[in-house]
From TrEMBL:
Keyword annotations from UniProtKB, A to Z: ATP-binding, Helicase, Hydrolase, Nucleotide-binding, RNA-binding
Family label: Belongs to the DEAD box helicase family. DDX21/DDX50 subfamily.
Pfam families: DD_DDX21-DDX50, DEAD, GUCT, Helicase_C
Lineage: Eukaryota, Sar, Alveolata, Dinophyceae, Suessiales
Name of the featured protein: RNA helicase
Disordered, as annotated region: 1-83, 621-678
Domain Helicase ATP-binding: 122-300
Keyword Lipid biosynthesis in annotation: no
Annotated Basic and acidic residues bias: 629-656
Domain annotation Helicase C-terminal: ranges: 333-477
Gene3D superfamilies in UniProt: 3.30.70.2280, P-loop containing nucleotide triphosphate hydrolases
Length: 678
């Protein structure tokens, strides 16, 4: 594919008359997602035949239910297989260069077909050409370079020429978790071909790695910092390297690893060294490293979408207006609705502190949330990831260390506590779900000051974002009831008989319906009174209400005018957040729960009515794309000024302090950056 000419990023957004705010995508009839949790068929507990009652009529009914339950997993498996087949473009056996040993190794992972990026990248990588590859998240980029690299080493006989301390292939990844995942794929295929594969990253002992290098390594996977340490100490020799792979190169450069990458590239042979660069996103500024270090690269881009969607089309994107203080409880409820008791959820936050604070939320602790960020010890990070993959941890709260390339099967829901400033991060975060043909949901919370970022993500990434209300009590209860039924199905008959006598007493005392309902509530942890949230703002104690008029409501201000004229001043002053709806004859607002009955009884002007909102209507778009672009650029400038050490005061750079603590100098300005004086 011909390489696109990409200009350097501009420091100031240009006003363009053609840039007009796009209308929000039309909402589905129901704002809340379907309640039934989409658990993997493998996780669904099978009903025990011993639970069947002994009466013939009940037994017949029970058998019918069992037959129906047993059909569901089979149907789900068939649907999943069909989804995978739509991504597959060829069979492994169709590529003659793939050895029998590698084919057998892939078969152990049930891999018999290749996805588009894997099929298109194989021949250029196998022939030793430089390659730049881009594919959407969850489409098999890792195997796209692992498979041809291993087959090339085997076919060319490079392993016979290898020397100690001199790996034949070096693969660099931005995070330890991604490096370990790539290592697992290399180890699977390398072991089948008799190749020694090792993974080096920080937080692990240096000495044993030196021993491995002296013993001889064919394929080395690692993070930039640790690999550069070995190069500078001369414990690793890259002069015989035949292939260098940069996975998620844009992330490594944005994380500040550019100098490390450049130093590693300078240590490679000047000729006869293949370079491969793969990522889900390739910003324009990545072209600098391509032009400098890659020779006539083959560009393979399978991420193009007719609608311009930069994310996986199997992902449903939703956004929820919610204050930061309420996001923990909302996320806990979303986990129950979308993932249930058997699914998985990944929650992304901006900072390590936010990560720890959110994981301490009562609802997330109740479902056993795990934490993953850079300050967690390496052995704990590995244990957490293994627990999440195995399903022992159902909710993982993480920073962006888990956003790149991490492949966890059957993640039902991804939540972002706020829209990221780096729009590319949204693509990678949401891509942790909807992988390998499975469907998934991505939910992004935002506040009023962050709404412009939601619109920019829609505009820049071609994503149809569906604005929905926060999880409601009825949705949570419905999902919990489904989980309770599945847990009851898994109880052994002996345990049922042990509780039978007490159950009869409870039924006689309270009635069968009340007794069973209370038992299911207790089983799913619902002991307290259920509280609703506003569909508009997510605040508890508030109810979203809709004002409908026969006449056009031109602006939100006109909606406020009608409310103040028809309602008493006391009630009007208590209302919040009036927004105009897309149809221009309605507006939605928040009212305190205790005032809702009074408002419904008030006699309004002819042609006007007020009702409680049952679902969130489509709202009028208020964000101008040009203005949002300028605001985003200014926000990024302030961020980089802080990182460079710029303070708020004009004279804040004259202080003499240089440490992490607040130095005292002659400057009068006050800065927030590192090592500034006052």
């Amino acid at each position: 594919m011909a390489k696109d000419k990409i200009a350097k990023p501009k420091l100031k957004a240009k006003a363009s008359p053609t840039l007009k705010p796009k209308a929000s995508p039309k909402l589905a009839p129901k704002a809340s997602p379907k309640l039934a949790p989409k658990a993997s068929p493998k996780l669904a507990p099978k009903p025990s035949p011993k639970l069947a009652p002994k009466t013939p009529a009940s037994a017949k009914k029970r058998k019918s239910q069992e037959d129906e339950d047993q059909k569901k997993p089979k149907k789900a498996k068939k649907q999943e297989a069909t989804s995978n087949e739509t991504l597959a473009v060829c069979k492994v056996a169709d590529i003659k260069e793939i050895s029998e040993a590698s084919a057998k190794a892939l078969l152990t992972k049930s891999i018999t077909t290749l996805f588009e990026i894997q099929q298109k990248a194989f021949q250029p990588c196998f022939k030793g050409q430089d390659v730049v590859g881009r594919a959407k998240t969850g489409c098999g980029k890792t195997l796209a370079f692992v498979l041809p690299v291993v087959e090339r080493i085997r076919a060319k006989g490079f392993a016979k020429q290898s020397r100690k301390k001199a790996p034949l292939c070096v693969t660099i990844a931005p995070t330890r978790e991604l490096a370990k995942q790539i290592f697992n794929d290399f180890e699977l295929l390398g072991a089948a071909g008799g190749l020694a594969v090792k993974c080096f990253y920080g937080g692990t002992p240096f000495g044993p790695q030196c021993d491995d290098l002296r013993a001889g390594i064919h394929i080395l996977v690692g993070t930039p910092g640790r690999l550069l340490d070995h190069v500078r100490r001369q414990t690793a020799d890259l002069s015989a390297c035949k292939t260098l792979v940069l996975d998620e190169a844009d992330e490594m450069l944005s994380m500040g690893f550019q100098e490390d990458i450049e130093a590693i590239l300078d240590a490679l042979p000047t000729s006869d060294c293949q370079k491969l660069l793969f990522s889900a996103t390739l910003p324009k500024w990545v072209n600098a490293i391509v032009e400098k270090h890659l020779s006539s690269p083959v560009w393979i881009d399978v991420a193009q979408d007719p609608d311009g969607n930069k994310t996986n089309s199997l992902i449903t994107h939703q956004c929820v207006s919610c204050p930061p203080s309420a996001r923990g409880d909302c996320i806990g409820d979303l986990c129950k609705i979308h993932a249930g008791a058997y699914g998985k959820t990944m929650v992304f936050v901006s900072t390590k502190r936010d990560c720890d604070e959110l994981a301490a939320n009562e609802k997330l602790q109740a479902i056993g949330a795990g934490v993953l960020h850079g300050d967690i010890p390496q052995h704990t990070r590995e244990k957490t990831m293994d627990g999440f993959r195995a399903g022992r941890i159902r909710c993982l709260v993480a920073t962006d260390v888990a956003a790149r390339g991490i492949d966890v099967p059957a993640v039902d829901l991804v939540v972002q506590t706020r829209p990221p400033q780096d729009l590319e991060s949204y693509v990678h975060r949401s891509g942790r779900t909807g992988r390998a043909g499975r469907k998934g949901t991505s939910v992004c919370f935002y506040s009023r000051s962050e709404e412009y970022l939601i619109r920019l993500i829609e505009h820049k990434k071609g994503i149809k974002m569906q604005r929905v209300g926060p999880p409601q009590a009825r949705d949570v209860v419905g999902a919990a009831a489904d989980d309770a039924v599945r847990q009851i199905d898994n109880v052994h008959q002996a345990s049922v008989e042990a509780f039978a006598e007490k159950a009869r007493e409870l039924i006689e005392e309270r009635g069968a319906e009340v007794a069973l309902a209370a038992t299911m509530a207790a089983l799913t942890g619902h002991f307290r009174e259920l509280k609703g949230r506003s569909l508009l703002s997510s605040y508890e104690g508030q109810t979203a209400m809709i004002l409908k008029s026969e006449r056009l409501i031109e602006t939100a201000s006109k909606g406020w005018y009608l409310l103040r004229q028809m309602l008493s001043q006391e009630i009007a002053d208590a209302l919040r957040g009036c927004k105009r709806c897309k149809d221009e004859y309605q507006c939605i607002f928040d009212a305190p729960d205790e005032l809702v009955p009074k408002i419904l009884k008030i006699e309004l002007w002819k042609g006007n009515s007020i009702a409680v909102a049952k679902e969130l209507p489509e709202l009028e778009e208020e964000t101008d794309i040009q203005e949002a672009t300028q605001k985003h650029w200014e926000s990024k400038q302030r961020f980089w000024e802080k990182r460079k050490g710029g303070g708020k005061g004009d004279k804040g750079d004259k202080g003499k302090g240089r440490g992490k603590g607040p130095g005292r100098g002659k400057g009068e300005g006050r800065g927030k950056g590192r090592g500034r004086g006052w």
